[in-house]
Design brief:
mainly beta, seven-stranded mixed sheet, 2 helices
């Protein structure tokens, strides 16, 4: 039914700036899209479903990082991992990959403004 597509899940406290259908990239190449997002109210987490265009080898030490792709705040999911793959242990369809959110310059400025500048002093 799904062909060679692969699906993984990632959990986050906040998914800003993601929307359904945002791209998933690895090493700058589009490899899939965000196919679904839903709220797990019991745990206070947003679960994202990652749909890869084909089954690819993603090592178990990889992370799914939310990034902003431009100054207007458009989002994407970036799969990141070190280039040295020492194990043959890879994610399989249905697994949950650790989620991460990359802070950009605007997030850092927002933190400084919100703290009244005390973040600069410490």
């Amino acid at each position: 039914m799904f062909g060679n597509r692969m699906y993984l899940y990632a959990e986050y406290r906040d998914v800003t700036p993601l929307i359904q259908s945002n791209p998933i990239v690895m090493k700058g190449l589009r490899v899939g899209k965000i196919s679904d997002m839903f709220l797990d109210q019991e745990r206070g987490l947003v679960i994202t479903e990652l749909q890869f265009d084909e089954a690819i080898s993603i090592p178990k030490h990889a992370k799914a990082t939310i990034i902003k792709t431009n100054m207007l705040g458009a989002g994407a999911m970036e799969i990141t991992y070190s280039d040295s793959i020492t194990s043959q242990d890879f994610y399989q369809t249905g697994d949950t990959i650790p989620g991460n959110k990359k802070k950009d310059l605007f997030d850092q400025v927002e933190n400084v403004v919100g703290s009244g500048g005390s973040d600069l002093i410490s």
